[in-house]
Automatic annotation (TrEMBL):
PROSITE patterns: HTH_TETR_1 (PS01081), HTH_TETR_2 (PS50977). Keywords: DNA-binding, Repressor, Transcription, Transcription regulation. It comes from Streptomyces amritsarensis. Residues 37-56 bind DNA. Pfam families: TetR_C_24, TetR_N. Residues 14-74 form the HTH tetR-type domain. SUPFAM superfamilies: Homeodomain-like (SSF46689), Tetracyclin repressor-like, C-terminal domain (SSF48498). PANTHER family: HTH-TYPE TRANSCRIPTIONAL REGULATOR RUTR, HTH-TYPE TRANSCRIPTIONAL REPRESSOR KSTR2. This is TetR family transcriptional regulator. The keyword Transcription applies. It comes from the Bacteria. The keyword Coiled coil does not apply. Gene3D superfamilies: Homeodomain-like (1.10.10.60), Tetracycline Repressor, domain 2 (1.10.357.10).
Amino acid sequence: MAARTTEPAGTHEAPVPQRLLAVATRLFAERGYDRTSVQEIVEAAGVTKGALYHYFGSKDDLLHEVYARMLRLQQQRLDAVAASDAPVEERLRAAAADVVVTTIENLDDAMIFFRSMHQLSPEKYKQVRAERRRYHERFRALVEEGQRTGVFSTATPADLVVDYHFGSVHHLSTWYRADGPLTPQQVADHLADLLLRALRP
């Protein structure tokens, strides 16, 4: 992924927490979490260390929030899709496409997380795993609903179906390029269609 040389538009007009997160995300993506210092973050954000520690107790808190904000967005959207009255096949396809689009739209966040998750404190690592598990369980429930009602094949266990799709999602940051031949929505549609074909009775 090409390193950015400028801050995201409007960074220095943004509230301090958002400014710190934007700068930390850029630096973590460019240099890596372990090679980015708190001093570099506050200098790039134009704030003091005191300001950072007012909003985030540590660099570890920043790393956690980089991922947590994306997961919160994805969880809210999945909950809305799953709770709708649409047929289960439509709900699963929408959920499968949405997680691809939102991951691509937050590709730096996803890359940082999968590259640096192991550097979280044990407590935050456990918390993130629990948050991710909740998302996966809600997604898996759609697969299980379709299997239970005969809409989807039961030949493959729901857990494997979910792992198959999210394995593709987790690799997006290694190959997707904004200047490539496919838009985020086109990638999402292809991967969602692959999932639905795998579940066809």
